[in-house]
Amino acid sequence: ARKIGVLTSGGDAPGMNAAVRAVVRYGLSKGCDVYAVYEGYQGLVDGGKCIRKMDWKSVRGWLSIGGTTIGTARCMPFKTREGRLQAAENLVKEGISSLIVCGGDGSLTGADVFRSEWGGLIDELKQNERITPEEADTYQHLTIVGLVGSIDNDMSSTDITIGAITSLHRICESVDSINTTALSHSRAFVIEVMGRHCGWLALMAGIATGADFVFIPERPPAGDDWETAMCEVAHRHREMGKRKTVIIVAEGAIDRSLNPIKAKHIKNILTDRLGLDTRVTTLGHTQRGGSPAAFDRILATTQGVEAVDAVLRSSPDTPSPLIGISSNKVTSGPLMKAVELTHEVAKAISEKNFARAMELRDPQFAE
Ligand code: F6P
C-alpha cells in the first residue's frame, strides 16, 4: 500500500484537524496507509513516536476541534540540511514517500525545498550506509502536496485559506462585544488584529462590523497626513450622532513611507486631537482559537480529499501541487507558482506599488 504522511506546520489554524481527518479517512478508503507526523517538521526530524500510523478511529471527533491535534511547531532544525537529512532517513525507514503538508507559505516552501533536495539526500544517506541501496532505489522520489492552513488568508492562487473564515468570525464577535461597551461610554477603540503582512482579516472585519477606519499593509492611507484624514472621518461620524469610534488596525499596517502604524499611536491621536476617551484592544491569539466554522470544516475536508487524489496521480516530473479554491471549486496548481505570486505582493509593497499589491491580493478591492 502507498504510505502517505500528513503534517501541520506553522501557526495553527481552525480546520487543520478537519484536513488531517479527511486525509486519513479518504486515504484509507483508497487503500493507502496514512501516517500522522506529530509536531510539524520537528516530528519529521525526530521520527520515532512522532510518526504514527492512523486508523479510521484515530481522527474521530476531529471535525469540530480547533487548533491542530497532531501539533505544530516553527522548526529550526528542518531549516538546516542536516535536519532534512535526518527527516529523509526517518521517512525512508517508515516507508513513506508522499507528504501532505498543511501550513502557510513558509512551511510549504520548506516542503518544496525538501522535495527538490530529495535525490541528493537519498544519495548521501546511501553513501553513509544510513539506508540500504535497495531503499535508495525504492525511494527515489518524494511527493509533496500542499494545503494552505493559515488564518491570514495571505496565499496567492487561492481565494481563501483554511482557518481564515473562522478567525474572521471570532474577530467580528470580539468587535461586536467591544461595540456595546464603546457605545455605553461613548468611547473610541483601536483594535489590532492579526494577519502578519496581510490586511485581509482587518479589511473584512472592518466591512463586517462597520468600523470607522481600517489600516492595512496593502493600501496605506492616502496622503502624507493620514492622522488628519482619520480624525476627519472619525469627527464626521461623531457629528452624525455616532456614540462610538472603532478603528481596526492590521498588525502589519504601514504608512506610505512603509513605517509601521501602531495602535498606541492611533490612540494618542484620537485622544489628543479629538478628545476621545480611547482604549486599545489587541485581540491576540483568541483569533486563532476555538472550534472551526462550518465553512472551514467543509473547505478542509474537500481539500483534504483532493490532496490525497493529487498524491495518487502525482508523477516525479510534475511540480508539487497546491490545493486551493477558486470560484467555489477546489483547485490543484503549482505550489511554487503560488508562493512566488505571494512574494510578489511583498515586493510590490516594498516598492510602494500599492495598487499592484491590492491587485495581486484581491482585484475587487484594487483601485
Ligand atoms: O500566521 C498566523 C499568525 O497568527 C499571524 O497572524 C501572526 O502574525 C503570527 O501567526 C503570530 O505567531 P505566533 O503564534 O508565533 O505568535
TrEMBL record:
Homotetramer. One of its GO terms (molecular function) is identical protein binding. Its main location: cytoplasm. Residues 1-367 are annotated as: N-terminal catalytic PFK domain 1. It is found in: Cytoplasm. It comes from Circinella minor. GO terms for cellular component: 6-phosphofructokinase complex; mitochondrion. GO terms for biological process: canonical glycolysis; fructose 1,6-bisphosphate metabolic process; fructose 6-phosphate metabolic process. ATP binds at residues 11, 74-75, 104-107. It comes from the Eukaryota. Keywords: Allosteric enzyme, ATP-binding, Cytoplasm, Glycolysis, Kinase, Magnesium, Metal-binding, Nucleotide-binding, Transferase. This is ATP-dependent 6-phosphofructokinase. The active site is at 152 (proton acceptor). Belongs to the phosphofructokinase type A (PFKA) family. ATP-dependent PFK group I subfamily. Eukaryotic two domain clade "E" sub-subfamily. Belongs to the phosphofructokinase type A (PFKA) family. ATP-dependent PFK group I subfamily. Eukaryotic two domain clade 'E' sub-subfamily. The lineage of its organism: Eukaryota, Fungi, Fungi incertae sedis, Mucoromycota, Mucoromycotina.
